[in-house]
Each structure stands twice: as C-alpha cells, then as structure tokens.
Design goal:
By secondary structure, the protein is of the alpha/beta class. The chain has two domains: 2-174 and 346-359, Rossmann fold; 188-335, 3-Layer(aba) Sandwich (Rossmann fold), CATH 3.40.50. The chain is built from 16 helices and 13 strands. The chain has helices spanning 10-25, 27-30, 43-50, 70-87, 100-111, 134-144, 153-161, 175-186, 189-196, 215-231, 243-253, 267-276, 286-290, 308-313, 323-335, 350-359, and strands at residues 2-7, 33-38, 59-60, 92-96, 115-119, 147-150, 169-171, 202-206, 234-238, 259-262, 280-282, 298-300, 316-318. The strands form two sheets. The chain has a seven-stranded parallel beta sheet, with helices on both faces. Helix 13 links the parallel strand 11 and strand 12. The longest helix is centred in the N-terminal third of the chain and has 18 residues, at 70-87. It is globular.
Length: 360
C-alpha cells in the first residue's frame, strides 16, 4: 500500500510527522510505503521543523514565493499534485487540518481518483469567515474524504449531524498529543526553556490569525500589556513573521518592560515555554490542544473556536477580542488550577489508530 502524507506549514508538520514515523515503523510488517510530501507553503517555518523529528521530505514542491495570495497557493499545489499523481500511484493521500495546502491537495487527489484520509476532521467554528479561510477549507476536505479521522467524539458527532456515513469516521485522538509525547521523551525541556528565558513568572502569548489583524489585535495587545503592568507577570511572545502582525505587536508592546518579544521558536522551544508558563493567551488552534497536556489554562483571543472541547473541559475560556473581556479573562487564567481535569484531545496513540483504520 502506497500512501502520501502531505504538509506545507509548521502546524501541519507537527501533526503529520508522528503519522509518518509510525508508518515507517510499520513499513515491513504491514507493507506500507509512505512518502512525506512537502508543498513548502510556509518555507521558513517548515525548514525550522525538519530537524526535530529527524525526517526529511521525500518530495518537495517548494511553492513558496513572497506575498503569494491564497489563490496562488491553491493553484501551485493543485498543479504540483497533478504532476505528482501522474508519476506515482498512491492508494491514499493524507492531509491534515484546514490549510490551503491540505484543501488543494485533497481536491487534486479526489479528481485523480485517489482515496483521501483527513487527519483532524470534523472541526467547526460555525462561521464560514472566522477563521478565514480555514473554516471553508476543512469543510471542503471532509466532503471529499474517504476516511475522516476525528480527534474527539464531539468532532465525530459534528460530522454525523452533517450527514456523513458513520463508516467513514474514526475517532483517533489528536496527533499533536503524539508529537508532544515524542518531544518530551527526546529533549530536556527545562534546559531548552532556560536558554530562552530565565524568568519563571511569565505567561506565553501567540497571535497571528488573519481575521484578528487590525483593531482586534490591538485590543488584545492592550489588554495583555495592562495585565502584565498591573500584576508584574512577564509576557513571553514569539512574534509571527507576518509583517502586519509584527507592526502591530511592536507598536503596542514596545517600551513594555515586562514584554519579551522574541523571534519565532521551533516546536521543541515552544513546548518548553508552554510547559513552564503560568498560562497561555493565544489565537492559535494548535496551542488550544497542546496546553492541557501540561495542565495550562488557555485564554482564547478569538470570536469563535472550532475546539469547544477546550472550553467544555475547563481548560480554557473564549475571551473574544474586546480589550476589557480579554483583560478579565487573564485574571481567570491566573486563578485556574487544573486539579483532576483530563486532556480532552487524546492519549498519544492517534497515529497508530489512523494507520490501522486504513489497513482494516
């Protein structure tokens, strides 16, 4: 059986690398032949990730160009896959999540009659434009997928309500937990964190969402600064490479003595910062899944979330993007104690379940 596992961005490689590693383990015993396929949608960030999991792309489309539009990314991925699928005859193409890379690869494979497995299927915010374009992308991918690997029971129930056949859906847990298990077992996270920051009294911040750029992000940043100034808790903020994000962040947080604005970190470094943080304020999707592993509370700085399990489990709060609401949510995070709460996103065996599902 030949499978292609596709990635193009940093979050994707984190979540598909464990599947690729597991496929390689099963190669001889189960007859799986796996290709790791990189589109290069985010060139710099993908290059940052390869060394962590000790894997290289088998195929690299290298589509990245400066300031490319979503339509340009989609066109390049579809064109690249049209040529690839002529050369290599895959039984399955695996895509992950909701990026333009994943959506375009899935459509290209579907049009060539290749079965698609959607890792992290069934997530919904309920608003087609928030997050944009991710909400549309994941809905499209689910429509053309032969197997939908839902990370949680709630994701499965969402797909069932939308009319998908239950036989196409497998609850697996989220592969990001597999990635965390890998990193914790391969790296000394305490040493990694101390190389970045010695302070232990800090909270971690990440912001980058397209729909938040502008006044929404200013509101969030002002709330973070007010809170940090009042409570004396440090902000550790790996600032996204997007020039529009960087401009806003440096305008609002420059001169804030407690703000440590650092360059983007790799996944091991982010995991180390997450492990020791007081809590997290973010508009990221992935960190909503990763924080509960370490018992950390998440202030979700967005108007919607496609991961309601975080809120329902008690590990997070959907704060919105109003300055005062975010400010108050930060105090709830400070008061949080994990106690016996359970991570709703998995147990570290999702990759194995995904591969077993296609092996029957």
């Amino acid at each position: 059986m030949r499978i292609g596992i596709v990635f193009g961005t940093r979050p994707e490689i984190i979540k598909v690398a464990p599947v690729y590693l597991k496929a390689k383990e099963m190669e001889k015993e189960e007859g799986i032949e796996a290709d790791f396929i990189c589109t290069g949608q985010h060139r710099e960030m993908v290059d940052m990730m390869k060394g962590i999991f000790n894997v290289e792309a088998d195929i690299d489309m290298n589509i990245m160009t400066a300031n490319q539009t979503l339509n340009e990314v989609m066109y390049k991925v579809v064109r690249g896959f049209e040529e690839l699928l002529k050369e290599r005859h895959y039984d399955w193409i695996f895509v992950q999540g909701d990026t333009t890379t994943a959506m375009a690869a899935a459509l290209a494979a579907f049009n060539r009659g290749v079965k698609i497995g959607h890792i992290e299927a069934g997530l919904r915010s309920g608003d087609l434009y928030d997050p944009f374009p991710e909400e549309m992308n994941r809905r499209v991918i689910d429509q053309v997928s032969e197997k939908m690997f839902a990370p949680t029971q709630r994701s499965k129930e969402t797909l069932l309500r939308e009319g998908f056949n239950e036989e196409r859906i497998v609850v697996t847990g989220n592969t990001v937990i597999d990635a965390q298990v890998y990193v914790v077992s391969h790296f000394n996270l305490d040493d990694v964190r101390r190389k970045i920051i010695w302070h232990e009294n800090y909270f971690l911040v990440t912001l980058h969402r397209r729909e938040n750029i502008g006044q929404r992000m200013r509101n969030i940043l002002r709330a973070l600064r007010r809170f940090s100034d009042k409570e004396g808790i440090q902000i550790v903020f790996p600032v996204h490479k997007n020039p529009k994000v960087r401009e806003l962040v440096y305008e609002e947080l420059s001169g804030c003595e407690n703000a440590h604005l650092i360059e983007p970190v790799n996944y091991v470094e982010l995991t180390a910062l997450l492990k020791d943080a007081k809590f997290v304020a973010t508009d990221s999707g992935g960190i909503q899944e990763e924080a509960p592993t370490f018992g950390k509370f998440v202030v979700v700085c967005r108007e919607t979330t496609e991961r309601p399990e975080l809120i329902e489990s008690g590990f997070g709060l959907l704060a919105g993007t109003d300055e005062e609401k975010v400010f108050q949510a930060l105090y709830k995070a400070l008061e949080f104690r994990a106690g016996g709460l359970k991570n709703p996103f998995g147990d570290g065996h999702a990759s194995e379940r995904i591969l077993n599902a296609i092996l029957g």
